[in-house]
Amino acid sequence: MSRLIHLNGLPGIGKSTLARRYAADHSGVLLCDIDVVRMMISDWQHTAEAAERSRIVGLAMATAYLGTGRDVVLPQLVADPGQLARFAGAADEAGAAYVHVMLTADADVVARRFRARAAASDDEWTAFATAHWDAAGGDEALIGWATRLDDLPATRLGSTDPDTTYAGLLALLTAG
Questions:
Q1: How far from chain centre, in Å, is Cα 51?
Q2: In what order do the strands lie in the sheet with 72-75?
């Protein structure tokens, strides 16, 4: 049975890094990064609807690909239970399993990682995300979202160093 492997967690926790590594190591896995899809929409930075439209496209793409019998790994921050239900529904529609993995770390560690990523990167998405979180309250806003994520049903996986986190993901997926 194919799986929609949803890697969830705060910005800077390692979702995209982990997803890229998993896809690179597993032939035929689709890496469905909804943030990348969003950047394909014209005027994505200035259109509030771009976030919703990118999720619609990303979920349709994931559902279609799951229908081929192959896994999809999806790195995406989702804190709304209604949105999580959409992701689970996409997997169900394709006859696939939904595996929701919440990457966790101390909120102050995540804030430091987020700032380090912003300082080291010059890509358009990182600049946009950094400006978004800064406008929402900066590190305090990031830390505030941690409590929203704590209330969601998910398998928790500590995000320590990349190799340990990746080994934990493999173990979780093998056991499940």
A1: 13
A2: 30-31, 72-75, 3-8, 97-104, 155-158
pLDDT, residue 173, reads: 96
Encoded amino acid at 138, one letter: G
Task: Tell me: pLDDT of 176 over 70.
Answer: no
Domain that holds residue 34: 3-175
What CATH number is given to the structural domain containing 96?
Answer: 3.40.50.300
- Tally Cβ neighbours within 10 Å of residue 16: 19
Query: Looking at residues 13-35, what average pLDDT do you find?
Result: 96
Its pTM stands at: 0.93
Instruction: Select from 36, 30, 63 the least CA-distant residue to 50.
Output: 36
Question: pLDDT value at position 77?
Answer: 94
Closest CA to 130 of 116, 144, 151: 116
- Distance separating alpha carbons of residues 94 and 63, to the nearest angstrom: 6
